[in-house]
Task: inverse folding
């Protein structure tokens, strides 16, 4: 997302900092790319709304013809309110989880949502709740992880899905409950290298070529995914044309193995939304921890955004490009550490996945300058919190030269509204 022609300072004066800024043109372009990759009856794309469930984003996904992968009952309800259809024919909204929590089971039954089962006990819960309908099975194929090792999406240390060697026993449970298995699913993550993503997709096709023969009702196979997004400016961008070729070949392979038509489903993950957004913060100070004449230590740029606003660097050591808007933008670059306001040593945006500080080469800003954290559209606002009673940041959409506030900054009253002294019957 290019912010060079966007009046960030004008927006900041109206909504305060930090704030999220979403570029509608970039969002719709990325959603369109995914839609074209999944064009036709043989491939469908599901937007995993956990990445960013803002109505602004859901509207773009719906308009592009994407389906939804929801992971909570409230996400199901939110998708339906955004205009996505319930029901099994077709299963526009799929519920994927390893646990039914809160209203999830009720939402699945009441709206006829396809449940994607990640743990065997969920079949018993569905049966006892009176569910009558098809299910999908999420398989743990024994391999895979996300763009950093901490994202453990497949393999023996991953909590997700049904272990591939136990799938026949689970199929028996489904048959006893009267639930036809109409779809199979796995998610192995993007991996740290683009080549690993393609390799994992091909490995999954080999796994499913065997499984579809054991599930005669299966009409769809979901390869999960999370299409790689280039967070670094030097990173290679994934070729969606090659991916479509892979998907069409997979559909042919699996249809032949099953003896009937099998459609492919993909979940592009962060790809449609990561690059459409920035988090804009205000520089409050620049300070040193130089310890000797050699200048050992660090120069810290203090900003008003923290891991309550963007947790990915603290949680995963994730990388986000950083730029300065203001006096520092034209200064000679030097190694700087960017840190937030929280009383936590982990509240640093320039660190690696080993939790080590990794200074960035930036022009030294002045207090009052704006600092921009790029590629924050996925798991940015969606994973933000009210830690230390701070309100979640405002979200602003930018389209056609117009800024629109789509989610205001939370206030203390918003946070305190849930507190009560209601007696419980014990």
Result:
């Amino acid at each position: 997302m290019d912010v060079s022609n966007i009046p960030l300072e004008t927006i900041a004066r109206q909504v305060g900092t930090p704030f999220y800024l979403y570029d509608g043109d970039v969002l719709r372009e990325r959603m369109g790319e995914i839609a074209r990759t999944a064009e036709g009856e043989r491939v469908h794309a599901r937007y995993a709304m956990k990445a960013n469930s803002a109505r602004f984003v859901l509207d773009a996904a719906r308009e592009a013809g994407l389906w939804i992968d929801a992971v909570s009952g409230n996400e199901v309800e939110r998708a339906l309110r955004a205009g996505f259809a319930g029901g099994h024919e077709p299963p526009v909204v799929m519920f994927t989880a390893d646990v039914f929590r809160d209203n999830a089971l009720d939402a699945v039954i009441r709206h006829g949502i396809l449940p994607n089962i990640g743990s065997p006990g969920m079949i018993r819960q569905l049966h006892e709740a009176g569910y009558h309908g098809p299910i999908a099975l999420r398989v743990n194929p024994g391999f895979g992880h996300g763009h950093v090792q901490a994202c453990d999406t497949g393999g023996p240390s991953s909590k997700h899905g049904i272990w591939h060697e136990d799938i026949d026993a689970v199929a028996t449970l489904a048959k006893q409950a009267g639930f036809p298995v109409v779809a199979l699913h796995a998610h192995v993550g993007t991996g740290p290298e683009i080549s690993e993503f393609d390799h994992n997709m091909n490995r999954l096709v080999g796994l499913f070529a065997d499984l579809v023969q054991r599930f005669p009702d299966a009409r769809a196979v979901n390869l999960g995914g999370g299409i790689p997004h280039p967070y670094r400016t030097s990173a290679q961008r994934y070729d969606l044309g090659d991916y479509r070729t892979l998907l069409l070949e997979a559909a042919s392979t699996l249809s032949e193995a099953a003896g009937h038509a099998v459609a492919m489903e993909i979940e592009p993950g962060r790809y449609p939304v990561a690059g459409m957004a920035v988090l804009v913060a205000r520089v409050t100070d620049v300070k040193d921890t130089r310890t000797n004449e050699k200048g050992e230590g660090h120069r810290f740029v203090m900003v008003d955004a923290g891991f309550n606003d963007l947790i990915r660097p603290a949680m995963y050591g994730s990388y986000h490009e950083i730029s300065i808007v203001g006096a520092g933008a034209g200064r000679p670059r030097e190694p700087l550490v960017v840190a937030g306001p929280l009383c936590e040593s982990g509240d640093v945006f320039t660190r690696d996945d080993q939790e080590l500080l990794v200074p960035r080469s930036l022009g030294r800003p002045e207090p009052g300058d704006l600092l921009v954290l790029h590629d924050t559209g996925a798991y940015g606002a969606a994973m933000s919190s009210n830690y230390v009673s701070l309100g979640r940041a405002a979200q602003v959409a930018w389209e056609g030269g117009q800024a629109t506030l789509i989610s205001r900054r939370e206030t203390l009253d918003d946070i305190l509204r849930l507190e009560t002294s209601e007696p419980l019957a014990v």
In short: The first strand starts at residue 19 and ends at 23.
